[in-house]
Every structure is written in structure tokens, then in C-alpha cells.
Design brief:
Elements lengths: L2 H21 L1 H15 L7 H13 L4 H18 L7 H14 L21 E6 L6 H14 L4 E5 L5 H14 L3 E2 L7 H14 L4 E5 L7 H18 L6 E7 L4 H13 L4 E5 L9 H9 L3 E5 L7 E3 L2 H8 L3
Parallel strand pairs: 1-4, 1-5, 2-3, 2-4, 5-6, 6-7
Antiparallel strand pairs: 7-8
Helix pairs in contact: 2-3, 3-4, 4-5, 4-11, 5-12, 6-7, 8-9, 9-10, 10-11
Subcellular location: Cell membrane; Cytoplasm
GO biological process, one term: SRP-dependent cotranslational protein targeting to membrane
Keywords: Cell membrane, Cytoplasm, GTP-binding, Hydrolase, Membrane, Nucleotide-binding, Receptor
């Protein structure tokens, strides 16, 4: 890496850190307000503090199951260390949340595409799922921008054919980013679109193919059948495709996002998560809860409107930002 590249990378890292800090501002404000109330007037971490801390984590949309795990970890620390002051609580919380997320961390999957050599033989195929309105198509566009900006060849497949807006939106994103979009229009066979997109990716020596899919949850059986069919036809071109099933969730909906995630994990094998719209909510704790409860790694988080505001999720960076005062 040359000196110019080093300074460019350093500038990008600082900009991303700033975007993350600003994007989590509402969550941080709410989080620390609650934490301050939990320890007000107390010197040591006792049962009363832990009870208040448990309430605070639930209110931050960390989720009940994950909150119980965090509290149990802190109780063990208190029992082991005998004396823990409330001044140390944020440090302990930070360490235990990072440790909890560590079980689901992964540098594999689509986040490793940037480290793969160009044209490795066949494209890495990502099938993107999620209900309408969570930012699914926008997430695909931002992912395409991330890969394309890194010099990777990208193909998009507009297989959410039940909404004209979804097809049109993806085409607009393709034009904006500068990558081809395979589309058959509205009310066409989603599996046929996916097949053609993967085939196009193979023909042009693409690095990654990203397939948009319909986000209907009103009939789980139909959704399951449709996603299974899309998988089968893609495997006729590339055995083993898709290599990643990325579930997009709206972080601003809090625990409702977890309920959506439960439904989709029943309908298909979700292997990674992208959690969007964290910049407009105080419910950023849902990132911790969903990852821990589903045992599925968070790959990306959305912290703003800009194309660069879809960030790779790094558990330590995220938690440090969350605790930054």
C-alpha cells in the first residue's frame, strides 16, 4: 500500500467511524440516560443495580433472552471479583456484550468478497430476503456500490417481481452504481430472473451476483416454496448457490424485527443479517439481541442515507461507539 492509499484508507475509516457514531447517537443518548438512572446514588453493583440494568437493557430492545444472558455474565463477574463499583459497570457491560457477540462473529461470507481475487472462477451468489419496507432493495444497491467501488464485477437480479416499484427501484440503483440488472419486469417468474442473473454473472466473469426476492410474509408456505424454487434453479448454473442468504431487517422496529427474523429463518436458511435504519432510532440495541438470539452473524448495518453508510459490522467497533460518551 502506497502512502497515498494509506492516507485515503485512513480518511475513509475516519469518515465511517464518524457516520457510525452519528448514526447511533439516538441509541447512545437513550442508553446512557437509562444507565445513569440505574446507578444513580449507588457505589457498588448489587442486586438492585442489576434489576435496574435488566430493565434498561430490555428498554433498549436488546431482548429479554439476551438481557438475561448479559445479566448472568455480569453476576458471575461480580461474584468472582467480590467488589465491583458502578463506575466500572460500563466497562464490564462493554466487555460482556462484545464477548456475547463474539460467538456469532464471522469474517466469511459476502464480507470476504473484497479479499477474494478477481474472477475466482464463479460468482459468489447472495440471495437477499426481507419484508417490504425494511430497505431491502436499497441495501442491495448499497452493497453493489461497495463491491463495484472495490473493482469487483457485480450483477443484480430483480426477482421481486410482485412489486413494480421493487423492479424499477433496482434498475435505478443499477444505473446509479453502474452495474447490469437482469429484469423480466413485474408479474414474471422470480426463479427465471434468478436463473438468468446467475447465468449472466458466469458469462461475464462476475465476482458477485445479488438476487432481490419478494418480501411477503402473509403465507409462509408460499414464501418457502418460492425461495426454495429460486435456490434450485440457481443451483443448475452454480452448484451450491446461493452462497449466502442475507436477511434485511429494519432496526427502527425494535423487537418486531426479531419476530420477522424468526419467520424468515423458518422459511429459509438465513446465514447472515443486515440491519438498516439505525440512524433514526433509539433501538440500536436490537442489533445485539437479534444476533445473540438467532445465532446468525450480523454482516452489515445501515447508519445513514449515503451509499457509503451501509457498513461492515464489527462487534468491537459497534460496542465501542455505543459506549462512546
Amino acid at each position: 500500500m502506497g502512502l497515498f492509499d494509506f492516507f485515503k484508507k485512513d480518511k475513509e475509516n475516519k469518515e465511517q467511524q464518524q457516520a457510525l457514531d452519528e448514526g447511533l447517537q439516538k441509541t447512545k443518548t437513550s442508553f446512557f440516560d437509562q444507565l445513569s438512572k440505574a446507578v444513580a446514588g449507588r457505589n457498588t453493583v448489587d442486586e438492585a443495580v442489576l434489576d435496574d440494568l435488566e430493565t434498561m437493557l430490555v428498554h433498549a430492545d436488546v431482548g429479554i433472552d439476551t438481557t438475561v444472558k448479559v445479566i448472568e455474565r455480569i453476576e458471575k463477574r461480580v461474584a468472582r471479583d467480590k467488589y465491583v463499583s458502578t463506575a466500572d459497570l460500563d466497562v464490564i457491560l462493554r466487555e460482556e456484550i462484545v464477548a456475547l457477540l463474539d460467538a456469532n462473529s464471522s469474517a466469511t461470507g459476502s464480507r470476504a468478497i473484497l479479499d477474494r481475487p478477481d474472477s475466482p472462477g464463479s460468482p459468489f451468489v447472495i440471495m437477499v430476503v426481507g419484508v417490504n419496507g425494511v430497505g431491502k432493495t436499497t441495501t442491495i444497491g448499497k452493497l453493489a456500490h461497495r463491491f463495484h467501488s472495490a473493482g469487483k464485477k457485480v450483477v443484480l437480479g430483480a426477482a421481486d417481481t410482485f412489486r413494480a416499484a421493487a423492479v424499477d427501484q433496482l434498475i435505478i440503483w443499477g444505473e446509479r452504481v453502474g452495474v447490469p440488472v437482469i429484469s423480466h419486469g413485474m408479474n414474471t417468474d422470480p426463479a427465471a430472473v434468478a436463473f438468468d442473473a446467475v447465468q449472466k454473472g458466469v458469462e461475464m466473469g462476475a465476482d458477485v451476483v445479488i438476487i432481490d426476492t419478494a418480501g411477503r410474509l402473509h403465507n409462509k408456505v408460499n414464501l418457502m416454496n418460492e425461495l426454495s424454487k429460486i435456490k434450485r434453479v440457481m443451483q443448475k448454473v452454480i452448484p451450491g448457490a446461493p452462497h449466502e442468504v442475507l436477511l434485511v431487517l429494519d432496526g427502527s422496529t425494535g423487537q418486531n424485527a426479531y419476530l420477522q427474523a424468526q419467520e424468515f429463518t423458518k422459511a429459509t436458511d438465513v446465514s447472515a443479517l443486515a440491519i438498516t435504519k439505525l440512524d433514526g432510532t433509539a433501538k440500536g440495541g436490537v442489533v445485539i439481541g437479534i444476533s445473540a438470539q438467532l445465532q446468525v452473524p450480523v454482516r452489515y448495518i445501515g447508519v445513514g442515507e449515503k451509499m457509503t453508510d451501509l457498513q461492515l459490522f464489527d462487534r468491537t467497533t459497534f460496542v465501542n461507539s455505543l459506549f462512546k460518551k
